[in-house]
Amino acid sequence: MPVILTSACLLGQQVRYDGGHKRNRYLETLAAYMELRPICPEVGIGLGVPRPPIHLVQHDSQVRLLEVRDHSRDFTDKMTDFARAQLNEHDSVDGFIAKKDSPSCGMARVRVHDGERQLIHKRGVGMFTGVWQALRPELPVEEEGRLNDLILRENFLQRVFVHCRWRKLREEGLTTARLIEFHTRHKYMVMAHSISAYQRLGRLLSQAGKRPLEALAKGYFLQLMAALQRRARRPNHVNALQHLSGYLRKYLSSQDRQELARAIEDYRRGEVPLIVPFTLLRHHQSHIRDLYLAGQYYLEPYPPALGLRNGI
Q1: Using CA atoms, how far apart are residues 265 and 259, in angstroms rounded to an integer?
Q2: Per residue in 146-185, pLDDT tens?
Q3: 58-117: per-residue pLDDT in tens?
Q4: How far does Cα 76 stand from its chain's mean position?
Q5: Starting at the edge strand that comes first in sequence, how are the strands of the sheet with 141-143 ordered?
Q6: What is the 3-state secondary structure (H, E, C) of the chain?
Q7: Which of 74, 82, 92, 139 places its Cα 20 to 30 Å from the Cα of 37?
Q8: CA dist., res. 97 & res. 232, Å (int)
């Protein structure tokens, strides 16, 4: 089961500066499929509830985390140290759901002010989240507001489950064979996101046995997660679906082949959601039981009950 670190206020904990919370109902759905670990970085560095608000302030070439009313109270070092410590404390997490706009947790578009408390821009990153993104670039991070976008939601949770499978592989012990198998089972998922990344990762793994395994695996996973972060476009999905359907052609009747081709074409034209050709592919696979197809996580990257492909 994946583990996701989550801003505690999103889980209903009353830890915000005003003593309130920002409960997100969708996270209650996710809780059935993954472990949600709450964290409030501001409480973590010793700030009380309620507390004076803090914000990001541009100071020379640095961004500092200061109390809004009293800029002499600087929490930058405390927050940075806390974030680094939590990296070790939560080294088994597979993703992070952050509170948008938060000066500690916000993933992007956080307000940054000047020394006179005037807004300069909205391109900041929460201090805690920024440390995590810098030191764990492979970790899926998303804000709760962006999870309302069905495509961003599917992308984030797909990456969470990929990260979880990679973590389990590392726990079991990295070998060249396991690395190659991992890639083989994810290759069409990668194809749906980026053909160039699909080709690049294939070339990288062709060096297995010629390069130190640990360095190869680290580079591979960083590139894999970067590729999966890119939005999977409809033409790439069609390409991957057509490749997979090719494995079934010799087993299917002419009528079944035409039906599958029509479903993929209907999706290409935007007339049906992605789940339609996937359901048909899985239906035929369940009868044919082709081991290669059965091993492709692209066909079932997460529990189907999440319904993530129903609307994209």
Answers
A1: 10
A2: 999 999 999 999 999 999 999 999 999 999 999 999 999 9
A3: 988 899 999 999 999 999 999 999 999 999 889 899 999 999 999 999 999 999 999 999
A4: 27
A5: 35-39, 3-7, 95-98, 141-143
A6: CCEEEEEHHHHCCCCCCCCCCCCCHHHHHHCCCCEEEEECHHHHCCCCCCCCCEEEEEECCEEEEEECCCCCCECHHHHHHHHHHHHHHCCCCCEEEECCCCCCCCCCCEEEECCCCCEEEEEECCHHHHHHHHHCCCCCEEECCHHHCHHHHHHHHHHHHHHHHHHHHHHHCCCHHHHHHHHHHHHHHHHHHCHHHHHHHHHHHCCECCECHHHHHHHHHHHHHHHHHCCCCHHHHHHHHHHHHHCCHHHCCHHHHHHHHHHHHHHHCCCCCCHHHHHHHHHHHHHHCCHHHHCCCCCCCCCHHHCCCCCC
A7: 74
A8: 21
pTM for this prediction: 0.94
What torsion, rounded to 10 degrees, do the Cα atoms 142, 145, 146, 149 define? 140
Per the CB < 8 A criterion, the answer to whether 14 and 21 are in contact is yes
Count other C-beta atoms under 10 Å from residue 300's C-beta.
13
**Closest Cα to residue 83, out of 38, 135, 47, 35?**
135
Type of residue found at 52? P
Contact status, residue 312 vs residue 150, Cβ threshold 8 Å: yes
Kindly state the tokens that stand for 94. Answer: 């597979």
Tell me how far CA of residue 254 lies from CA of 25, 51, 260, 261, 262, in angstroms.
46, 69, 10, 11, 12
Would you mind telling me the total number of residues written for the chain in this entry? 312
Whether 91 and 52 have beta carbons less than 8 Å apart is answered as no
Helix axis angle, 76-89 to 127-135, nearest 10°: 50
CA atoms within 13 A on the CB side of 95: 29
